[in-house]
């Protein structure tokens, strides 16, 4: 593994107004001296844009505390090749973290175009820009880190999910695009010797997260007196991973690139890796809902006498969904000495407090 010192590095983060992207930028500003960050985000309306603007405002506040750091936000789309090429030409990033994507399993069933644009064409543009960063003898990109997803495991029966498992049977277009990202990255790593690492994230949650995720959507519905639907009659299990653990994992991985090597055939051995980042502790959805309602009452988001039973409905599995997600994090622990460990109760407590402050 090639160690990388992030101090004074030029880092290009895509999806900087997104949940993981914004939190990663905040962590880089807080922890890395003289860091230089450029981000791109199209601020689309897949969910409330005000939430994305709030995250960017937190970044600006943090930036004011670190005058030695630089940050630039570009409103644009990674599917716009000219825009990506311009950023690479002017900024010349040394580390690239691709977090921009169209997320969500169910949305991919009704709006497939968005996934092909962002997750396929957009990622291709990033790979091409990384490839051309080495022209004319330039050092170029030292490490490309990109978001994959636990969705690639589909309905694999073997648990916990290990990165060595076959993932050839996606059950949603979203999962198929993320598996495609891994295949594309492998091809580019082999052909152009680009050090790349894919990260399979498992159900990321926390303050200022995505409103389409269960914990956030449930809270919104309960607040409005609506009924929440618990899929597979409550028999789903999810490996919920708190946002701070995800960010810590990403930052550690950024600092350890797969090593460039030449094989016996005189051609590059692809400097390529994939890791799971998950809590390694799946939680039953009904237990999750019970913890969430306790924390919502504790934070005074909902009254103590709220009738949860009247607002819960057990329903069948949805298309594209899977019964369980469960991360084997052995490789992450072995190579980076890190294992996510935030309890679901603590994570949901932090979310409930934030929700109360944000929505009053």
TrEMBL record:
The record's keywords, sorted A to Z, are:
Membrane, NAD, Transmembrane, Transmembrane helix
| Coiled-coil segments | none
Question: Which superkingdom, per the lineage?
Answer: Bacteria
Record-linked SUPFAM superfamilies: NAD(P)-binding Rossmann-fold domains
| Transmembrane parts of this sequence | 12-29
NAD(P)-binding domain residues: 12-350
Question: What PANTHER family does the record point to?
Answer: EPIMERASE-RELATED
Q: What is this protein called?
A: NAD(P)-binding domain-containing protein
The species this protein was found in: Enterococcus columbae DSM 7374 = ATCC 51263
């Amino acid at each position: 593994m090639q160690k990388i010192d992030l101090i004074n590095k030029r880092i290009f983060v895509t999806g900087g107004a997104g949940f993981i992207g914004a939190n990663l930028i905040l962590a880089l500003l807080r922890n890395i001296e003289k860091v230089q960050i450029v981000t791109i985000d199209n601020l689309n309306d897949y969910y409330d844009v005000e939430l994305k603007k709030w995250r960017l405002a937190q970044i600006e506040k943090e930036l004011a505390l670190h005058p030695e750091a630089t940050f630039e936000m570009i409103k644009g789309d990674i599917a716009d090749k000219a825009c990506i090429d311009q950023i690479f030409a002017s900024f010349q990033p040394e580390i690239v973290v691709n977090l921009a994507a169209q997320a969500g399993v169910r949305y991919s069933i009704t709006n497939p175009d968005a996934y092909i644009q962002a997750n396929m064409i957009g990622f291709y543009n990033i790979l091409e820009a990384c490839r051309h960063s080495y022209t004319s003898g330039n050092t170029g990109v030292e490490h490309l880190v990109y978001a994959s997803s636990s969705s690639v495991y589909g309905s694999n029966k073997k648990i916990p999910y290990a990165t060595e498992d076959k993932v050839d049977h996606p059950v949603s277009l979203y999962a198929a695009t993320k598996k495609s990202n891994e295949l594309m990255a492998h091809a580019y790593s082999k052909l152009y010797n680009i050090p790349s690492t894919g990260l399979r994230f498992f159900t990321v949650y926390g303050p200022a997260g995505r409103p389409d995720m269960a914990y956030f959507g449930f809270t919104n519905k309960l607040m409005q007196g609506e009924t929440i639907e618990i899929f597979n009659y409550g028999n789903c299990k999810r490996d919920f991973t708190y946002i701070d653990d995800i960010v810590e994992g990403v930052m550690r991985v950024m600092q350890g690139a797969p090593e460039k090597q030449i094989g016996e055939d005189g051609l590059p051995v692809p400097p390529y890796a994939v890791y799971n980042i998950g809590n390694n502790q799946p939680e039953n959805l009904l237990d999750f809902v019970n913890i969430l309602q306790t924390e919502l009452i504790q934070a005074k988001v909902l009254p103590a006498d709220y009738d949860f039973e009247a607002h819960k409905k057990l329903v069948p599995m949805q298309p594209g969904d899977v019964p369980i997600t469960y991360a084997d994090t052995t490789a992450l622990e072995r190579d980076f000495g890190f294992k996510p460990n935030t309890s679901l109760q603590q994570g949901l407590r932090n979310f409930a407090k934030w929700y109360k402050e944000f929505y009053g």
